[in-house]
Design goal:
5 helices; mainly alpha; 121 residues
Length: 121
């Protein structure tokens, strides 16, 4: 299994987890608790993305020329996870306040648009 395929599977798992956290975030009090989970989950995404980014950067510079494209792609995916982590930080701050997600997050989620999608190419 390649690193890119593994990162894609991680991205799919993250998307599923965020879907559950989105629903929990609408419920007053429960949403406050899920906001704490989302906040720490965002930290994991940022730090995990940094690790992937740094390993990929070193590997793309010093690795075999045949693998440079793979490592470049993994480098982009590391940045992708970092951005998702920061967005989860922001959403956790909104969800921490009871009832606020009902007027901010719920309409956004219902529109179906995404600031940053997990569609990893």
């Amino acid at each position: 299994m390649t690193i890119v395929k593994s990162l894609r599977q991680i991205g799919q798992a993250c998307e599923s987890l965020e879907g559950v956290l989105n629903i929990l975030g609408y419920i007053p009090i429960v949403g406050t608790l899920s906001a704490l989970i989302r906040f720490f989950y965002g930290k994991v995404q940022v730090f995990g993305g940094l690790i992937v980014l740094l390993i990929s950067l070193v590997a793309s510079i010093f690795g075999r020329p045949a693998k440079k494209r793979t490592w470049k792609h993994a480098l982009e995916l590391g940045g992708h996870f970092i951005r998702h982590g920061f967005l989860n930080y922001g959403r956790s701050l909104v969800e921490f306040i009871p009832f606020l997600p009902l007027i901010t997050c719920l309409p956004y989620d219902r529109l179906g648009t995404k600031i940053l999608d997990y569609e990893i190419r």
